[in-house]
Amino acid sequence: MTDAPPPEADRVPGAPHPRETPRVLGHDDVVAEFVAAARSNRLHHAWLLTGPRGTGKATLAWAIARWLLAGGETDDLTVPPDHPVARRIAAMSEPRLHLVRRPVDDKTNRLRSEITVDEVRKLLSFFHMSAAEGGRRIAIVDAADELNTAAANALLKMLEEPPADALILLIAHQPARLLPTIRSRCRTLRLSPLTPETMAQAMEPLEIEGDPVQLAALADGSVGEALRLSGQDGLAVYQSIVDLFATLPRFDRARAAALADVAGGRPGADGDPFDLVITLLDRFLTRTARAGLMGAPLVQAARGEAELMARIAPDDRAARAWAAAQAELSARARRGRAVNLDPSALVMDMLVTLAQAPLAEA
After folding, report:
1. Given a cut of 80, is residue 3 above it in pLDDT?
2. Which of 72, 276, 285, 320 has its CA 20 to 30 A from that of 122?
3. Could you write out the DSSP letters of every residue in 116-144?
4. Interatomic CA distance for residues 76 and 23, integer angstroms
5. CA nearest 7: which of 98, 99, 111?
């Protein structure tokens, strides 16, 4: 038996929960848009918060909820941490706020893979029970693209006939996966990747392990991704990818096998090693293709990266070839995962294919 708390689907391992983040960084235009809408007395009942994973969508949702329930007095969504609403939200005891997220399986104490219809029914009960108390009530759905079909249909019905004084904030990493009818009933706030300066500001209090400059470059504007990479030793894995490709046109089979072995590791609390390796291979190919068009990256994510990319992606022809390789890699990863191929064998096959491509002989 263990006294460990159950996992939270909306928390990045090793990071504070978004409800604990005091302010929204790097999205002043989005904040201003919502504040203006709220003060117009025509606040839409449903908002879709979109953008790359890890850029602050959940932080924004919790800030909106905290600000509205506290009276909406500031211009930047901030609320003093000693405000009663802020304290109740931090303790998950605010009666006017409901969170919908992937539940924990009572038998295994593990997170379910989807948000079930029962979770949406709980939301409907929340709105019905709190209606008698009057005032604004807020729900956060994190993430809406994790709703299963029945849950999505139940939520759609709620959006079509919204409860009085209800505000529903839907977080979506991949909004294209949502029902078009859900998207059409929401007003959208799109968050862009964070700038390097904002990344550094956001990462400073998190005590992330690893070079913050390299992590910021590799995370591509996502603090959440930087946290994930840090927790899974992503910089070391990316360095091994750069070192492997630096041996081309000679293919270092031993280095490739070591990388494939990493991909074959068992998933843990910090994430899936196969997903990490595939993500970093994808990012390496994307950065290489970009180097062919724009020159080697000014900020390196690994030692020797700029020199390598300048050699193997010297022009736009090479950029197109590496971009095509990236698309093929993503397709192979999806196919391999769909049929449960051995992760190590799948990654080794990808590496051999890339090494044999004409562009690798540059």
Report:
1. no
2. 72
3. -HHHHHHHHHHHHHHHTT-S-EEEEEETG
4. 8
5. 111
Q: Within a domain: residue 222?
A: no
Is the same domain home to 34 and 140? yes
User: Comparing C-alpha atoms, which of 244, 256, 245 is closest to residue 362?
Assistant: 245
Cα–Cα distance, 257 to 180 (Å, whole number): 44
pLDDT mean over 292-318: 92
pLDDT above 80: residue 222:
yes
Domain count, the chain: 2
- Give the residue numbers spanning the domain of 263: 232-361
Residues 136 and 261 placed together within one structural domain of the fold? no
Residue 139, amino acid: A
Q: Which residue has the tokens 């390789």?
A: 325
Four-residue CA torsion sign, 213, 215, 220, 223: negative
Q: What pTM does this model have?
A: 0.81
Q: Is 362 helix (H, G, I), strand (E, B) or coil?
A: coil
pLDDT in the model for residue 1: 42
Residue 205 lies in a domain: no
The dihedrals phi and psi of 189, each to the nearest 5 degrees, come to: -120, 115
Q: 335: exposed, middle or buried (C-beta count within 10 Å: 0-12, 13-18, 19+)? A: exposed
Whether residue 265 has pLDDT greater than 50: yes
> Is 106 a domain residue?
yes
Q: Which residue has the tokens 């079930």?
A: 116
Q: How confident is the model at residue 360 (pLDDT cuts 50, 70, 90)?
A: low
Q: What is the mean pLDDT of residues 48-52?
A: 95
Domain end residue (candidates: 137, 168, 190): 190
Contact 73, 38 (CB under 8 A): no
Same structural domain, 44 and 140 = yes
Residues 60 and 125 in one domain: yes
Asked if residue 4 has pLDDT above 80, the reply is no
Q: Kind and range of the H or E element at 167?
A: strand 166-172
- How far apart are the C-alpha atoms of 327 and 323, rounded to whole Å? 6
Q: Which two three-digit tokens encode residue 266?
A: 């068992």
Closest alpha carbon to 72 in 21, 136, 165: 136
Model confidence pLDDT, tens digit, residues 68-114: 999 999 999 999 999 999 999 999 999 999 999 999 988 888 889 89
- Tell me if 226 is assigned to some domain: no
Q: Are 214 and 254 in contact (CB under 8 A)?
A: no
Total residue length of the chain = 362
Is 265 in the same domain as 145? no
